[in-house]
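Record type: ASSEMBLY
Status: queued
Input:
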Amino acid sequence: MSSRKVVELFFDVVSPYSWLGFEVMCRYRNVWNINLQLRPVFLGGIMQASGNKPPGLVPNKFMYMTKDLKRLGEYFDVPLHPPSDPFEAMFNKGSLSAMRFVAAVQEKNKGSDQKVELVSRELWRRIWSEDKDITEPASLIEAATKAGLSVGEIKELLEMYTSKEIKDKLKSSTQEAVGHDSFGLPMLVCHVDGKQEMFFGSDRFELLAHCIGEKWLGPKPEKSAAKL
Amino acid sequence: MSSRKVVELFFDVVSPYSWLGFEVMCRYRNVWNINLQLRPVFLGGIMQASGNKPPGLVPNKFMYMTKDLKRLGEYFDVPLHPPSDPFEAMFNKGSLSAMRFVAAVQEKNKGSDQKVELVSRELWRRIWSEDKDITEPASLIEAATKAGLSVGEIKELLEMYTSKEIKDKLKSSTQEAVGHDSFGLPMLVCHVDGKQEMFFGSDRFELLAHCIGEKWLGPKPEKSAAKL
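Status: finished
Output:
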């Protein structure tokens, strides 16, 4: 355990590039000798603190991102399908309640990120694959149920996720991301030889691998490893 | 010749990510079965037409880019060293005259991009490695001399690069880039089965390789191939 390099993945389910980064890192968790730590945060807070603007506000960038996400989703084998109204889903509805819910899942399951992983994936699937809401309690219940959580657990989470404790937890994780000079998500922080190396986005995996002394085998390492 | 896939690389020597893209594509030109076409354009015109803002204006992004370029420069083996005052070099001084000069080199050497490649590399080396000017005629002469151009050729280029013909040529190439929905550089346009696929930046080589039916072997393919 102590010899494994720690890699923190800061993410928000409103961010499609975070989904790509999340799936790739979950696949590599057992391929590379790393201790992957999932860090749910609120992208809106990071954008505000850093003064960054969403890339989709530049029309050519928005068009490119649509193509880029389609190509990357296919190549990475992640079922990315943008919501019919991305601006409504991402900016008007947003992800504050969803990420508070994920933070509550993490708080309730200290010591294991397994449920955080499963619930986050179901939330991404809702917004970035099935064009479904992620803001209403009913939506959170559905996602948690699909993730395999029990009725009792979900009831408890619904009481927790609007509490001051969980709001503060998400806020403090988000501030921690900002402390790493974040200006967007996903953000990966590698702890190597007492130093921290930050990587932004879902297009620095090869460089990240190089930095932690591992090898990039493409977005589907187990399939690739099987081929060797 | 006709069976080779055409890949156009739109670049500006003011852009460090363009330099990475340029060196990688020049290395892959003989590894992949492609016809690489160098397309000198003016980044300032693309930013204005697309309404995009330079990423370095967000402080956290600027700090990240500095680290990112250092890491990428080392990993890609490109001697990237930011100028002491990047804002002065990139925005106040800019690259309009340098890119007109490169456009003149291309106009004078139709049919071969070899001199375009050599002169562009010397210009990048000046601004992005040695913190030297690229706006004055004396700077262009020095770069062209290092690139191996003769005194006679350089004299002719100095007469050409401020002509209406060359100004219009750079303008029309820049408009062509905007027509591909560009919002920054480098931009790669692959012509595959009668269709065009556009890739932005220096972090989609693996996806680009997949798209043209080739394999990504890392930023130094010949070394990597030698290892196999």
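Annotation: Chain A has a mean pLDDT of 94.
Annotation: Chain A has one domain: 5-227.
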